[in-house]
Automatic annotation (TrEMBL):
GO terms for biological process: methionyl-tRNA aminoacylation. GO terms for cellular component: cytosol. GO terms for molecular function: ATP binding; methionine-tRNA ligase activity. Belongs to the class-I aminoacyl-tRNA synthetase family. MetG type 1 subfamily. This is Methionyl-tRNA synthetase. It comes from Butyrivibrio fibrisolvens DSM 3071.
Length: 665
């Protein structure tokens, strides 16, 4: 696990790392929340690790989630409007658009695959079969006959997104609930959905029994509790994530409003053994049962009596298969044939498929992926949105545990090597959860690039503090004219680079070009600058280890402004006193600091930093963290013989968007 750092601890990095970004559905291009809420953070961390532990030791994968009812439903509507392509062509078109958007934002996966297309699709089908068979062998798969929605008018079973209703989970504020999950990720059985309506006919669907494969997630509840306790005690996993996980680790329960119980005592006499939470100030009573069978018996009694209830959060069997045509084939087993995987489980192991696809493309052995996903000296970091905590931090952890151990075994959940889950809170839009029905339509990711550079947006989204709270994204260009006052807050963090750091770099280059024949002075660096640099690097590395990206922006701001102040104050002093040695010292100090700033900013604003490296005439060893505190001479040898690339007037390392110059005129 990613251990919690004590006061004086230094981060310990794995020898190898896999970074994953959540899988966007293949029915759309990327909106600003996909990119700003998750992908940019994953990319910054991946780029940092490439510098920190070596590019060859990092694999960053993501891809398009090609299957699932959202894609099928979007394709169905498109066909009704006259689209003539196949569903594969539809998904491929969106996949290519997603891939281009990520490239435009300088997001750099080693592989951005697609679960249904090309070599990644073939590998994903193979991996899915292997995982199913291993889970079956280890005793974690069972057949269950459950109720599925059926449209009597259309004479078809309905997939998840073809049914709309109200989420049955108490307190849920989702505005959309589907057959067995709501838009906030809550899981329930189809029979619990409140006021279901078929998207095909607009009628209330019936429920018919179907048999599917399920992963026995509920049998792992004790192991998941042990895992959550271990993470809470010794890891730097985000607290709200652990709290969310904990909500699902209680025993099965039903919650009954008092107004629905005419005779509570008579009802209780029919229930199997239970515990009760009955507080006078609350409008409901909660009945807690030993297991799901006991809860289901109580639910049957309530339904027979016509008593309305809701189910409390707990672990339930996690559906693996379904009956839709567009999906990854499930291996035929026992009497179950021609089934396909439900999209959620196969999307959870898709990053393994993508890792294997990437390694295979490099000509490496078939089992090479295990060194990245299963070795004690490796770590998998998964960046997700908070709505998906249930799937990644609970269901995936259960499945991956079930792949490693047989059902009767009891592993040490504090020692088991499982992915480190990094959930971000929501990026709001104009103080509200982004919605296409809002007064101001939230922008797609591509649209923002008409007003801001990728590096400006990367700096801003990094700084939002999504590790602990939902934060509003307020691009001034989308506000009514009368509200466009003062600085555009999207530019605030980027100005640190486009204004302050730019000016500092140029001042250093012009100084050596005008005074020292284009050569950096070879002075020893002022001790206070070295100490400030050590402190900044240590802070930055701790924040990166903890994925506190907004704190990185504070650390950079303090350091860059302090170095800029060192330049301004001392150059002025040198000019006023006519002290050439002081000026020479300041130039040496600030070039050294600019080198360190470039290394720290490199994961966030890569293009500007690569340009700095090019003008410094240093090879890629500049990004090697083992040398981060070394003098510039350690990269180039004798500074007296090292030439910098000439910097012409008005050349910027970190650029503003052309539209921002138009606004300034």
């Amino acid at each position: 696990m990613n251990k919690r750092l004590m006061r004086d601890d230094k981060p310990v990095w794995p020898k190898r790392a896999v970074i994953t970004g959540g899988m966007p559905y293949g029915n759309k291009t990327l909106h600003f929340g996909h990119v700003g809420g998750m992908f940019i953070h994953a990319d910054i961390f991946a780029r940092f690790l490439r510098d920190r532990i070596g590019e060859e030791n990092v694999i960053f994968v993501s891809g398009t989630d090609c299957y699932g009812s959202p894609i099928m439903e979007a394709y169905r509507k498109l066909k009704e409007d006259g689209y003539e392509g196949t569903i594969e062509e539809y998904v491929k078109g969106n996949h290519e658009k997603q891939k281009k958007t990520l490239a435009d934002y300088k997001i750099s996966p080693n592989l951005f695959g697609a679960s249904a297309l090309g070599e990644a699709g073939k590998m994903h089908t193979k991996v899915s079969a292997e995982i199913f068979n291993k889970l079956y062998e280890n005793g974690y798969i069972e057949k269950l006959s459950t109720l599925q929605f059926y449209d009597e008018e259309k004479q078809v079973f309905l997939n998840g997104r073809q049914v709309l209703g109200k989420c049955p989970i108490p307190g849920c504020c989702s505005d959309k609930a589907y057959a067995d999950e709501c838009s906030l990720g809550h899981q329930y059985m189809p029979s619990e959905l409140i006021n279901p309506v078929s998207a095909l006919s607009g009628q209330k669907p019936s429920l018919k029994a179907v048999t599917n494969w399920y992963f026995c997630l509920e049998d792992l509840i004790d192991l998941m509790k042990e895992r959550n306790d271990a993470l809470r005690k010794g890891s730097n996993t985000r607290r709200y994530s652990l709290d969310t996980i904990g909500e699902f680790l209680g025993k099965p329960s039903v919650i009954i409003p008092r107004k629905n119980m005419k005779d509570q005592a008579a009802l209780e006499s029919l229930f199997p053994k239970f515990e009760k939470i009955d507080e006078e100030k609350k409008s409901f009573v909660q009945f807690i049962f030993e297991n799901l069978d006991a809860r289901d018996e109580a639910k049957k009694i309530l339904e027979e009596k016509g008593v309305h209830y809701t189910s409390g959060k707990t672990l339930v069997p996690f559906r693996l298969s379904g009956n839709v045509d567009w999906g990854v084939k499930v291996p035929d087993k026992e009497d179950q044939k021609d089934l396909t995987f439900w999209v959620w489980p196969e999307s959870l192991w898709a990053p393994i498929s993508f890792t294997r696809t990437y390694l295979e493309s490099k000509g490496l052995p078939e089992d090479e992926w295990k060194k990245w996903w299963d070795s004690d000296d490796a770590m998998v970091y998964q960046f997700i949105g908070e709505d998906n905590i249930y799937f990644y931090a609970i269901a995936e952890m259960g499945i991956f545990t079930g792949l490693k151990y047989k059902k009767e075994e009891h592993p040490d959940m504090a020692a088991i090597n499982l992915p480190h889950i990094i959930p971000n809170r929501h990026v709001l839009f104009m103080d509200k959860k982004a919605s296409s029905s809002s007064d101001i339509k939230p922008p797609m990711a591509d649209e923002l690039l008409a007003y801001y550079t990728p590096e400006q947006l990367r700096m801003h989204f990094m700084s939002l503090g999504l590790s602990s709270k939902s934060v509003s994204f307020k691009p001034q260009v989308y506000m009514p004219k009368e509200e466009q006052e003062g600085i555009d807050m999207v530019l605030k963090e980027g100005n640190l680079l486009t204004n302050v750091f730019n000016r500092l770099i140029r001042s250093c280059f012009y100084a050596v070009q005008n005074n020292y024949e284009g050569k950096i002075p070879s002075n020893e660096i002022t001790p206070s600058i070295v100490e400030l640099s050590k402190k900044t690097i240590a802070e930055y590395e701790r924040h990166m280890y903890n994925h506190d990206f907004h704190r990185i922006s504070y650390t950079l701001d303090d350091y860059i402004r302090e170095i800029n102040k060192h330049w301004v104050n001392n150059v002025k002093k040198a000019d006023n006193t006519g002290d050439p040695e002081l000026r020479k010292q300041i130039v040496a100090d600030c070039f050294y600091a600019c080198k360190i700033i470039a290394i720290l900013v490199h994961p966030i604003a890569p293009d500007g930093c690569e340009m700095f490296r090019e003008y410094m005439n240093i090879d890629k060893s500049l990004w090697n963290w083992d040398k981060i505190l070394d003098p510039i001479s350690s990269y180039v040898g004798d500074l007296d013989n090292h030439e910098l690339k000439e910097l012409l007037p008005r050349v910027d390392f970190f650029k503003k968007h052309e539209s921002q110059f138009a606004d300034a005129e």
